[in-house]
Design brief:
The structure holds two protein chains of two kinds.
Chain A lengths: L8 E5 L4 E6 L7 E8 L6 E6 L4 E2 L4 E4 L5 E6 L8 E9 L11 E6 L1
Parallel strand pairs in A: 1-9
Antiparallel strand pairs in A: 2-7, 3-4, 3-8, 5-6, 6-7, 8-9
Chain B lengths: L3 E4 L2 E4 L4 E8 L5 E7 L6 E7 L2 E5 L6 E7 L2 E7 L7 E8 L9 E2 L3 E5 L1
Parallel strand pairs in B: 2-11
Antiparallel strand pairs in B: 1-3, 3-8, 4-5, 4-9, 5-6, 7-8, 9-10, 9-11
The chains are: A mainly beta, B mainly beta.
């Protein structure tokens, strides 16, 4: 699986959009970009994933660059409950396992 | 609520005890996983089961013994653990056979070995 690079931490004011970047410059053509988050001491929560096109669901939007070497997870209106560690993971579509890195610790403040 | 449940949520055990962690998924998935998350460290994959068959053992010590009696249930049997085995143990499940199928995690069991 391709390696990802994320900033270790970010801050965001409540109500503002949180934009979390991820670099995956060695991504292969059959590899998807997945985003999970982990609120303190809980199991990771699936957020969204995509291959080439931008994706949106009720939680977030995923913007993937045209060359697929980077992506951005957007939480449109961050709340205090969005404070968590966010993981960007690249994995082949049929691969079995996920390899977690250290992620980005997002702190949402008043 | 992800459809993956784990019991117990918290466990304290001595190094000579034997205990078991249980995971159950209600999603109709056929692959199940055990992960370990030690303090300040990323999640580490321990075991993978597909259709009840173990397909991956990530060099896990034999004091951890997994069991998968069917596609909905997964156990992790623990015996003679060490204090450094204290961690959050996470179960996950996934439907295989399609592109991009994602894993869903349970809430975890917080284990403390004294």
């Amino acid at each position: 699986d391709a390696k990802t690079t994320q900033p270790p931490s970010m801050d965001c004011a409540e109500g503002r959009a949180a934009n979390l970047p991820c670099n995956h410059s060695t991504i292969s053509g059959n590899e998807y970009v997945y985003w999970y988050r982990q609120i303190h001491s809980q199991g990771p929560q699936y957020i969204i994933h995509g291959l080439k096109n931008n994706e949106t669901n009720e939680m977030a939007s995923l913007i993937i660059t045209e060359d697929r070497k980077s992506s951005t997870l957007i939480l449109p209106h961050a709340t205090l409950r969005d404070t968590a560690v966010y993981y960007c993971i690249v994995r082949a579509g049929t691969a079995s396992k996920l390899t977690f890195g250290t992620g980005t610790r997002l702190q949402v403040t008043l | 609520e992800t459809g993956v449940t784990q019991t117990p949520r918290h466990l304290v055990m001595g190094m000579t005890n034997k205990k078991s962690l249980k995971c159950e998924q209600h999603l109709g998935h056929n692959a199940m996983y055990w992960y370990k998350q030690s303090a300040k460290k990323p999640l580490e994959l321990m075991f993978v089961y597909n259709f009840k068959e173990q397909t991956e053992n990530n060099s896990v010590p034999s004091r951890f013994s997994p069991e998968c009696p069917n596609s909905s249930h997964l156990f992790l049997h623990l015996h003679t653990l060490q204090p450094e085995d204290s961690a959050l143990y996470l179960c996950a499940s996934r439907r295989t056979g399609g592109e991009g199928e994602t894993q869903y995690f349970g809430p975890g069991t917080r284990l403390l070995v004294l």
